[in-house]
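**Backbone shape codes:**
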Amino acid sequence: MTPKISVIVPVYKVETYLPACLESITAQIFRDFELILVDDGSPDTCGAMCDAYAADHSNTRVLHQANAGLSEARNNAVKIARGEYVTFIDSDDFVTPDYLEYLLYLAEKNNADVSCGQALSFPDGIVPTLPVVQESEQYLSAEQALSGICYGKFPIFACSKLYKRELAAKYPYPAGQLYEDTATTYKLVGDAGHMAYGNRVIYYWRQRSGSITHSAINERHFYGITAAKEQLAYMEQHYPSAVPAARARCAMKIIDLSYRLVMGKMDRPLFERIRAEIKPLLPQLKADPKAGRSLKIRSTALCWGYLPYRILSLIYYELCRLTKHKSFIPTN
């Protein structure tokens, strides 16, 4: 029997976190789903853990592949998925028991090819608690959804969403690249034409110091800026009203990389390259009433040079350190 949803979980070097992820999937209220675990050539016992789980759960399949990265793990799983919808869960994260039920409810109620719930980030080692919010739902046009994603109102990353399988298959994630979500989510939402969004927190996003998004900046990280600029070009061609938001997203990506650079091992040539990227965006960014004040201040400081930006970044770091965890929309 064909399942309603295919749940895809790429797995690589997450022995400590995989049990919690699998337990949260096992606890789903909605039961008409298949689980595809992709062992991405993990050198530890993750592959054996996946096989053991599948042996005890008839709705689970394991795909073993040579290490090829997150994008290819997702892409290969989509190729064999049987569900009407697919959803992605990262193996070091976990979800609420109503994760699948809520996303499917949003999709079917609004006849939407993409539905989205809220994510809560939390530092590794901290037990997260759900915030008390007044729940709301929105049926958004592509322009509204893309603007919201770019301004950081809705999650940009692949997880916490439900996609029609045919749509997910149409837009594979870029192989071998970082920031694969930045490069892909806007295409999925743009093609879908609409997105159903609910602000209920259904996804827990673990912040690990050793994860890809927290690693030291190098040449590969510049693909994040490239992907954001491609997104901006897409908006200019297809959704002009979302251009200011896409410009802000470019600035956010530049600021993210520059902040991590000056707070880590400094590379002045890389810093100057990043600094050059923000300058053309700054005049229109400053004039955008929807762009955040913090983004404008940090972008201006980056244009001033290394020392002003380093000082501001240290202040920003201390302010963030005082906050243990918060509701957060990932900026990948």
Residues 43 and 327 are 33 Å apart (CA to CA).
